[in-house]
Amino acid sequence: MNDMRQIERAVDMKQTKITARGVQVYYGDNHAIKDVSVEIADKTVTAFIGPSGCGKSTFLRCLNRMNDTISICRVEGDILIDNEDIYDPRVDPVQLRAKVGMVFQKPNPFPKSIYDNVAYGPKIHGLARNKAELDEIVEKALRRGAIWDEVKDRLNAPGTGLSGGQQQRLCIARAVATEPEVLLMDEPCSALDPIATAQVEELIDELRQSYSVVIVTHSMQQAARVSQKTAFFHLGNLVEYGETGEIFTNPEDPRTESYITGRIG
Amino acid sequence: MTDQTASQPSSKHGSLLAVDARTKKRNAAETRFKAYGIGALLIGLFFLVTLLTAIVSNGSTAFSQTYISLDVTLNAEKLDPNGTGDRDEIAKVTTLGYTQIIAEAVANTMAANEIESPLPAGALPLMVSASAAAQIRDTVLADPSLVGQTVTFNVLASSRVDGYLKGRVTRESLARDRNLGPPHLDIVDQMLDAGVVEKRWNLAFITGADASESRPEQAGIGVSMLGSFFMMLVVLFLSLPIGVAASIYLEEFAPQNKFTDFIEVNISNLAAVPSIVFGILGLAIFIQIMHLPQSAPLVGGLVLTLMTLPTIIISTRASLKSVPPSIRDAALGVGASKMQSVFHHVLPLAMPGILTGTIIGLAQALGETAPLLLIGMVGFIASNYPDGLASGFLDPNSAMPAQIYEWAKRADPAYYERAWGGIIVLLVFLMTMNIIAILLRRRFERRW
Ligand SMILES: Nc1ncnc2c1ncn2[C@@H]1O[C@H](COP(=O)(O)OP(=O)(O)OP(=O)(O)O)[C@@H](O)[C@H]1O
Ligand SMILES: [Mg+2]
């Protein structure tokens, strides 16, 4: 409990990275996100929890405009990153996604070599001036993805030939290779074993030093372990948002309490 | 113990060792279905074998041809009466002037092999192809010093003699023939024994030009093969980029609305439009409005491009669709633009499908005859080789399937064999294209 307190105090000083105000998302007629307003702090891990189908992924995908690729999806309201409206017509979603990286629920490495998987982002964003620099970026990213030791001898092997957990860590390495400022993770550990999960969690904790991390998870323990702030979604509504310690020990809303104690889900 | 468990099943499912009625029925249905499948396969295989046997047995003879080796005395009095030895002077003698020389050569050859015949000397050259005169004249013109010498020529036998060696022509069938009679065949028999007449592998069938109706022994598919080749170049270089670009736009970039739906439906419909409709469209637009030359491979290629585009677009879109969306998400997620995600990730994955679709479209176009009918590529005697790229695209030519159709139409039964032979050549091309498709597929798939 003591260290929870410490984290709380740390959070207070962090400045806001992402502000969402009155966000509504519709899939055709399906109202998937209902008037969600939230402030996500910089250099913090924020966890989204909630029962399946409540709109966690949908809201997460709003933050880097991945919903643009779904033609029936409509987003209303304001989402600001560093006080800039990311749905402003002048914003190029490509630039936005270089700043806001994403790790998907299902591992989706490119059907290319492990090296190329990680090197692709830095290459298209011109982060490396030469091969040596690129090698360095790739190694650093793979190390941060906690997978370097497993793949360092076979960087030219196909990324799709790795196990599910390794693939997911490769995807994390790929996402951090482009040096984003915000990292969105949609259930990054759902395909990982406890050891790999622990590694990824450690990694998330480390990423917090430099990024704002938003993670969707179904595991309460995970949310409690890695996050400083937690948002509980239910049926498209943001029911409760606050310090993780507060949410798990002393939830205000009865729905949050029943979910955490396992009564809805 | 075992007996006990079998007779007293402890669970409601009964013993696993006994097959119950439901399972039996299901297994029987499965067996029946497998039998149907194997039956269908066998029927298909039977037809395939029958077809191939028919094609090979009817067409393989087109690849060999009967030749007569004649000792031709190039009579200087006839060919170069003034004794100048000048090429231009010798060129004044037309092929008609060689008739007599050939007649003498046949008589001499017969005499040399002690072959006797009741036929008058004038009837003897009928065993030799009408092409022989031109062949001898060309040789003489190439080397005027041959005049006055006796040179051995391998000349084509006439199509009747060739037919006799291949079993198509018999003494009975010749009874009412005005050109050749049974006495000729007696000579051929003796010449065969003497080794003067011989059936040989005939490369000229593959490389040669078409010939007039009366000289089937000389006709080859080579020129129309070039016609097909130039047409395919046009089709490939127009339909592949246009088709792939259109598909990528429709599949990845176009907004989903009524207009794109309309286009989509129309492309599917176009794929089902009979090819002759494309032919008449080509006639109207390319020839009557744009005044492109008739019978030209360029026009043929344009028409076939129209025909191939829907096929390529449909298969390309299908293979783009089959690329999992998670790959696109992954690319967009690391900040790739739409264009980068398509060209770096989606297109390479769709490549095997696109290539297969393209090659199948090309193969279809290669075998297409009907539209060529309307733009004048059928009925044309493709007797001149194109002399360069421009003439290859613009000079009147035929195409392989059109040539085959043309041969099948001609009256002389010797052309029948050539039509089958042409089909073999066409099939070899189609099979080669399919093998290339498979190899390319493999090559691209190896890169996962
Ligand atoms: N591509 C889509 N098209 C239409 N509706 C969608 C789409 N994606 C999600 N939805 C709908 O939006 C709602 C929220 O879905 P979302 O995927 O955000 O849930 P989630 O909280 O991430 O669930 P889970 O925990 O199972 O991943 C659901 O009702 C779902 O049916
Ligand atoms: Mg989800």
UniProtKB/TrEMBL annotation, chain A:
Its EC number is 3.6.3.27. GO terms for molecular function: ATP binding; ATP hydrolysis activity; phosphate transmembrane transporter activity. Residues 18-260 form the ABC transporter domain. The keyword Hydrolase applies. Keywords: ATP-binding, Hydrolase, Nucleotide-binding, Phosphate transport, Transport. It comes from the Bacteria. PROSITE patterns: ABC_TRANSPORTER_1, ABC_TRANSPORTER_2. SMART domains: AAA. GO terms for cellular component: membrane. GO terms for biological process: phosphate ion transmembrane transport. SUPFAM superfamilies: P-loop containing nucleoside triphosphate hydrolases. It is an enzyme of class 3 (hydrolase). It comes from Flavimaricola marinus. This is Phosphate import ATP-binding protein PstB. Pfam families: ABC_tran (PF00005).
From TrEMBL, chain B:
This is Phosphate transport system permease protein PstA. PROSITE patterns: ABC_TM1. Residues 225-437 form the ABC transmembrane type-1 domain. The keyword Oxidoreductase does not apply. It holds the Pfam family DUF3333. One of its GO terms (biological process) is phosphate ion transmembrane transport. The chain crosses the membrane at residues 35-56, 225-250, 270-290, 296-314, 346-367, 419-440. Keywords: Cell membrane, Membrane, Transmembrane, Transmembrane helix, Transport. It is found in: Cell inner membrane; Cell membrane. GO terms for molecular function: phosphate transmembrane transporter activity. Belongs to the binding-protein-dependent transport system permease family. CysTW subfamily. It is a multi-pass membrane protein. GO terms for cellular component: plasma membrane. It comes from the Bacteria.
